[in-house]
Amino acid sequence: MTPSERTDTLSEQEQSTASHQNYRRSLGTISLTAVGLGSIIGSGWLFGAERAARLAGPASILAWVIGAAVALTIALTYSELGSMFPKAGGMVRYGQYSHGSLAGYLAAWANWIAIVSVIPGEATASVQYMSSWHFAWAKGLYEGKELTVSGVALASVLLVGYFVLNWFAITLFAKTNTAITVFKVVVPTLTAGALLFAHFDTAHFTDHGGFAPNGWSAVFTAVAVSGIVWAFNGFQSPLNLAAEANNPGKSLPKAVIGSILIALVIYVALQVAFIGAIPAADLSKGWSGLGYTSPLADLSIAWGLNWLAMLLYADAFISPSGTGMIYAATTSRMIHGVQENGHLPRIFGKVDARTGIPRPALVLNLVVAFLFLAVFRGWGSLAEIVSVATVISYITGPVAVMALRRLAPDLPRPVRLRAMPVVAPVAMVFGSLVLYWARWPLTGKVILLMAAGLPIWAWYELRKPWAELRPHLRAGAWMVGYLFVMAAVSWAGSTDFGGQGYLPEGWDLLIVAALALAFYYWGVASAWANPSLAEVRRELDAEAVPAEQAPESREPSRV
């Protein structure tokens, strides 16, 4: 390496360090829990109960429990990783640390696609609820399955609003989000209680085909595509804001796990209330015949709860907008992380020194959000894409957490679960099953979308010498193989999950679980001490020295 190359490398490292120093460590446990809960309770609670009931009937209640169990096991693996590496955009980094550029990039791409597409989804949800207003202009915002041109225009205005609130300072974001989250918790709780009190028909839980009218395969599909995975995916928002946590070792796991459990109680209560409150006439065509535009508001009007309908119309702006605002914040940190992984231009790693906001990354995500809004104009279509991409991004957590225990046992782990050797493979199996439950051809379409990001990786990586590139390819082969094999299994699977029927019912789930475990152990074994891991080690060591010299500087601040 020439002296000029060493100078350039040093300059990049210094710039990276400076960018991270520009973040404000001002988020405590309450603020981070509000971030997680605010992400989980977004548009999912406005539409999820109806979509889940349409697929699974009363058994949709169990779909929410299954979804929470999947999210919780996966969240446990990421909580350890987040406490180890409290860096901006944490979710896009862990695969890079354990397996190098190929696996790291695929995981980051899947995660970013899953999160950035939520932002237009939240705007779409708000506008779709507005279309139920009794005004001619409101009726013209939505036509059956997607927004009209005027609906897209209004959703675009909301997108700009989400990003404006993130432009100025993290403390403004935290205070605004905490207030919104309180409202977002109160209104769903009040809605469930009001509907239960207004009308509760217990016959709905046994009539119209029984508790599981479409079989258990429909329950599993509801987990994957009805918005349940979409909702619980919000657990990762605190992890992506880890660089702004004032005590990440304690606050991150509390925020992640606490937000999932609180949201589960709220979502189950809403699902029970929704099932009991449906007018009997609306079930004349069975559960699949449900077709509400604004589900909870429509039920409120049906039982004379006009005040609740008005509150829901207002919350249809507040809940999705709060979630959209959070995801605008977290996706900008994810872009920063992808840039530091070496797969985006340097400008997207810049953090404004005065506000602590990665503004160029915000702008990029706003542009991408507009593109998603233009292509996917309905909440349902976005929810399906987000859910499957989310599950694909999940699989690196269980593999990375155990791989790093093997590669870097000496690194500090503020959160260390003794049962992780069991939890991690179980999380891998759960994630793979949810991917399979999403049904062919949706699984194939989203896996193809994952491949669409590879040209960006190739632009940055294929120019490297073969000797340097080869270990990254070898370590990432398990993930490429996983995507191809899961697509093939989904295509060949049982007809219950959209497949060709080559795999008999029951055996297909066992095959998916066995393949998940095989790829899990392959992934853990293929991890290697790559340059990204070495670099983050140096960064952690550099941060530890000032902390020992001036422990008072590590005192947590309050928002």
From TrEMBL:
This is APC family permease. The chain crosses the membrane at residues 27-49, 61-81, 102-127, 147-169, 181-200, 215-235, 256-281, 301-318, 362-379, 385-405, 417-436, 442-460, 472-494, 506-529. The keyword Membrane applies. InterPro entries: AA/rel_permease1, AA_Transporter_AGT. Residues 1-21 are annotated as: Disordered. It is a multi-pass membrane protein. GO terms for molecular function: transmembrane transporter activity. The keyword Plastid does not apply. It comes from Streptomyces kaniharaensis. Pfam families: AA_permease_2. It is found in: Membrane.
